[in-house]
Write a structure and sequence with these properties.
Largest sheet: 8 strands, parallel, barrel
Strand order of the largest sheet: 2-3-4-5-6-7-8-9
Mean pLDDT: 92
Bound molecules: 3-methyl-2-oxobutanoic acid, zinc ion
Structural class: alpha/beta
Radius of gyration: 27 Å
CATH superfamily of the largest domain: Aldolase class I
Distance between the termini: 58 Å
C-alpha cells in the first residue's frame, strides 16, 4: 500500500469560488475541522491578496497543529515575503509558489519568452527556500504546456530546492489517459524527479477532476490537491470526499492509503456548505441528499433484504445517518411498511395493504409523499381522531438592539394555546414559543432554508429536523415569509411525533 498525501485547498482554491468568501474566524473553524479529518496539508489562502487572507493564514499557522500549513504566492518576492510571514509560526510551514508555463499564458499574461519564465521560477523557489521549511512549485496550466519546456522548468526548480512539484490541470482540459501520460513523461524525462514528490491539482470543467486525479496517482503522483464538496474556480476542483471514497471503496484495485478519517467527511461537507452558503446538489456523490436515498420499489426491496444490492458504501462510513427510503410513485410495499414503522405506527398487515393502495393513488399525483401526507392517509383510512396542532398567528419583535421575542397562537382542537418566548434570534424565539405552547422540549438537529421560486417575492422553503425523547422527525413549511415558513415546519415536525404517540396510545 502506498501513501497518498492529501493537500486540502478548500481555503484557497475553494474560497476562489464565486460567493465562497469566508471570514477569518470561519476559515479557522474550517481548518480545525479538516485537520481533525486528517488532511496532510492545508492551503490556507493567498495572503498577498487581502489583509483578511493574511490574517486567516496567520491564525491557522499559529493554532492548527498537525498538518503542513501552506500559503500561495506568485513567483515574485513581495508575494513570497507576505506568504512567509503568514506561515512563519506553523509547526510545518510550506510556501507554494507558481508561474504559468503554457504558451497561451506566457504570451498573453506575461508577454515574456520561456527562458525568462524559467528564470523567474528558479529565483522565486530559491528565495522561498530560505523563508519556509519547504517549497512547492506549480507550473500553472501545466497540462497545456509544451512538454519539453515543462521538463526543463521542473528540473531547474527542483535544483533550486522545490521538493513538491505540483501539476495543475488549471482549466480542466485534460482527459484521464492524457494525465497519466503526462505524469509518466515527467517521471521519465526530468532527471532529478526522484528528489521531489509529484502532486496533482485538477479542475472539473469537464467533470473529470477526480478521474484525472486517480489517473495521476496511478501514474506515480503521491500528493492530491482537493477541496471539500469540490468547490473551487469555475466548475471547481477534485472533490476530497469523492477521491477518498473511490480509494476506499475500490481498494481492491487502488492500493493506496491516506490519513483521512472518513467518518469526518460528512461533518466537513456540511460545515463548508453552511459557512459558504454554497448548497450541495441533491445528487452530489457521497455527500448529496440523494446519495443514500432510494425511491424505486425494486431498489428499496433489495436494499432492505441486503444493503449491498444497491449501496457500495455505508452512510456511517462517512459519518452520516442511515440510508433514506423516499416514498414516491416508484416505491414498493416493503419500503412503505418500513417507513410507517419508523414513524411509530403499529398497524396490521391488512390495514397496511389498504393504506398502501391509498398511498399509491396519492403518490401517482405527487413527486414525493412526505411523512405528513402519510400520517393524513393513515388517520383517514383508520378513522382515527386526529388532534394535530395548527399555527394560527405569530408576531415577532426583533432588531439589532432588542431581544428577539415571539408571540404565538396555536390551535389544538377547540383550544387556542397562546405563548411568548425570547431567543437568540427570531427563529429561536419562535421555536421556543411553540414548544412552550405545546408543552414539549425538542432538540433542533438541522435547519435549512432555500428559495423555491425566483425574485424578490420568492417563496422560501424551510426544512427542520428535530428529535423529542430520542424520536426523530422532519418537517417542512413554505411561505414568502421565512419566519412563517420556519414556524410551519417546526409545528409540522412536532405534529408527526405527537400524532404517532397519540395514535398508538389510542390503539393500545
Ligand atoms: O489551478 C491552478 O493552476 C492553481 C495553481 C495556483 C496551483 O490553482
Ligand atoms: Zn486551481
Amino acid at each position: 500500500m502506498e501513501r497518498i498525501f492529501i493537500f486540502d485547498t478548500t481555503l484557497r482554491d475553494g474560497e476562489q469560488s464565486p460567493g465562497a468568501s469566508m471570514t477569518v474566524e470561519q476559515k479557522y473553524e474550517v481548518a480545525v475541522q479538516i485537520a481533525r479529518m486528517g488532511v496532510d496539508a492545508i492551503e490556507t489562502g493567498f495572503p498577498v491578496s487581502s489583509p483578511q487572507q493574511f490574517q486567516a493564514c496567520k491564525m491557522i499557522s499559529e493554532n492548527v497543529k498537525g498538518p503542513v500549513i501552506t500559503a500561495l504566492a506568485r513567483a515574485v518576492e513581495k508575494d513570497i515575503d507576505i506568504a512567509a510571514e503568514a506561515v512563519a509560526k506553523a509547526q510545518h510551514s510550506r510556501i507554494h509558489t507558481f508561474i504559468a508555463t503554457s504558451p497561451i499564458h506566457m504570451k498573453y499574461k506575461f508577454n515574456k519568452p520561456p527562458e525568462e519564465i524559467i528564470g523567474m521560477a528558479v529565483k522565486a523557489v530559491k528565495y522561498a527556500k530560505n523563508k519556509a521549511a519547504e517549497v512547492e512549485f506549480s507550473p500553472e496550466d501545466a497540462t497545456r504546456s509544451d512538454l519539453p519546456f515543462l521538463y526543463s522548468i521542473l528540473e531547474k526548480v527542483i535544483e533550486a530546492g522545490a521538493t513538491i512539484i505540483n501539476i495543475p490541470d488549471t482549466v480542466g482540459y485534460t482527459i484521464p489517459q492524457e494525465m497519466s501520460n503526462i505524469i509518466t513523461a515527467i517521471k521519465n524525462n526530468v532527471p532529478n524527479i526522484d528528489k521531489a514528490i509529484i502532486s496533482v491539482h485538477c479542475h472539473n470543467d469537464l467533470g473529470l477532476a477526480v478521474a484525472n486525479t486517480l489517473a495521476a496517482i496511478e501514474a506515480g503522483a503521491r500528493q492530491a490537491e482537493v477541496t471539500i464538496n469540490g468547490i473551487g474556480e469555475r466548475a471547481g476542483n477534485a472533490a476530497l470526499e469523492e477521491l477518498i471514497m473511490a480509494l476506499s471503496v475500490r481498494k481492491d484495485l487502488l492500493k493506496y492509503t491516506t490519513n483521512i478519517k472518513t467518518n469526518q467527511i460528512y461533518n466537513s461537507s456540511r460545515l463548508i456548505s453552511n459557512i459558504t452558503g454554497l448548497e450541495i446538489s441533491r445528487n452530489k456523490p457521497v455527500v448529496g441528499d440523494n446519495a443514500f436515498a432510494h425511491e424505486s420499489g425494486i431498489h428499496q426491496d433489495g436494499l432492505l433484504k441486503h444493503r449491498e444490492t444497491y449501496e457500495i458504501m455505508t452512510p456511517s462510513s462517512i459519518g452520516r445517518g442511515s440510508s433514506d427510503i423516499v416514498l414516491g410513485r416508484h416505491s414498493g410495499f416493503h419500503g412503505f411498511k418500513k417507513r410507517i414503522g419508523e414513524l411509530g405506527f403499529v398497524i396490521s398487515e391488512e390495514e397496511s395493504k389498504r393504506i398502501f393502495d391509498k398511498f399509491l393513488y396519492i403518490a401517482d399525483r405527487k413527486k414525493e409523499v412526505y411523512d405528513e401526507d402519510l400520517i393524513t392517509i393513515i388517520i383517514d383510512e383508520l378513522g382515527m381522531s386526529s388532534s394535530s396542532y395548527k399555527l394560527e398567528y405569530f408576531n415577532i419583535l426583533s432588531g439589532n438592539t432588542s431581544v428577539p421575542t415571539a408571540t404565538i397562537k396555536i390551535r389544538h382542537n377547540e383550544t387556542v394555546l397562546e405563548e411568548a418566548a425570547t431567543g437568540d434570534g427570531p427563529v429561536d424565539a419562535i421555536f421556543r414559543a411553540i414548544e412552550r405552547a405545546i408543552g414539549v422540549n425538542a432538540v433542533l438537529n438541522e435547519y435549512k432554508v432555500h428559495a423555491v421560486t425566483p425574485g424578490k417575492q420568492a417563496m422560501g422553503e424551510v426544512q427542520v429536523s428535530i428529535s423529542v425523547d430520542g424520536v426523530d422527525s422532519k418537517g417542512r413549511g413554505s411561505s414568502t415569509d421565512i419566519l412563517e415558513a420556519s414556524a410551519i415546519a417546526y409545528v409540522s415536525a412536532l405534529n408527526k411525533i405527537l400524532l404517532s404517540k397519540e395514535m398508538n396510545n389510542e390503539k393500545n
